[in-house]
Amino acid sequence: MKSTLDQIEDISKNGYTLDFSNVFNHAFENYKKIALYAGLILLVFAIIAVFLGGGVFVALYGVEHFTEEYFKSLQNEQPAGRVLIIYTLVITFVAALLSPFTAGFLKMADCADKDKEFNVSTIFSYYNSRHFSPLFISTLLISLTGGVISVAFSYLGIPVIDAFITLIITFFTSLTIPLIIFGDLNAIDAIKSSAIVVSKQPLVIALLFIVSGLASTVGLIGCCIGVVFTIPITYSVKYAIYSAIFNINDEDSIDSIGQSDFE
Fold first, then answer.
1. Do residues 230 and 219 lie in contact, with contact meaning Cβ atoms separated by under 8 Å?
2. Burial (CB count <10 Å: 0-12, 13-18, 19+), residue 179
3. Of 117, 158, 241, 248, which has the fewest CB atoms closer than 10 Å, so is most exposed?
């Protein structure tokens, strides 16, 4: 069987086909298997994040700032350059630290697709895995690139272009995480390979992400808490896209394919 990099080379030369209906049907069937479990996990960690975030805010600014007027002033206030840079670096680090958590949902989708057992530990399985380093490094590089662009365009006063470029970067690197955990690529190869793969079928992949994004917002209807149970469809769609393009092997069977992050 060809390695992931060999498959990427073939895709670069010859492209590939991707059927919207087949991929979305696969994703929806997979979503039904993980929706409840993944939604409950997201709900629990969303609650924890809110309490932690609120605690940090109170510790830094005091409880007296929890007023409607204060939050309105924050929306209208233009952050200072140093504050914006610090904020960008913090967000970048947090995103990198949470990347194995995101990868865990893709692993859950893989287990569901293969009718394997999964549980809470599945979500955290990549924190003590050999994949932690490339997951962290790749997300750090992508987030840092987007952050630098965001800061630059904020200084120039044209946030619309900033948002557009950041969206483009996110789109073309969207398969980086599955290429690491399923394709066993290192951080740099995964980023480059994601850009190659997405560029061959950008319209179909974009449409799949748009539809899954719209589907995930259905949870906002009636009771906003329902969104945590619809968000997992985005992970199922990403998994279905990857599995439609590549063969997904068990981790143990691809140990010989992997490369060091420092190669």
1. yes
2. buried
3. 117
What is the Cα–Cα distance from 232 to 219, expressed in whole angstroms?
11
HSE-up of 33 (CA within 13 Å, CB side)? 23
Q: Is 222 exposed, middle or buried (0-12, 13-18, 19+ CB in 10 A)?
A: exposed
C-alpha dist (Å) from residue 160 to 91, 121, 175, 204: 20, 40, 25, 24
Structure confidence by residue, pLDDT tens digits, 155-202: 777 767 878 888 999 999 999 999 999 999 999 999 999 999 999 999
pLDDT of residue 153: 78
Q: How far is CA 154 from CA 41, 84, 86, 147, 213, in A?
A: 35, 9, 14, 10, 26
Phi, psi of 62 (to 5 degrees): 95, 150
Q: What is the mean pLDDT of residues 196-218?
A: 93
Task: Give the per-residue pLDDT at 254.
Answer: 42
Total number of residues shown for the chain: 263
User: Pick the residue with more confidence: 86 or 138?
Assistant: 138
Of the pLDDT bands very low, low, confident and very high (cuts 50, 70, 90), residue 260 is very low
pTM (predicted TM-score)? 0.84
Q: Which H or E run contains 99?
A: helix 81-113
DSSP labels, 26-94: HHHHHHHHHHHHHHHHHHHHHHHHHHHHHHHHHHHH-GGG-SHHHHHHHHHPPPPHHHHHHHHHHHHHH
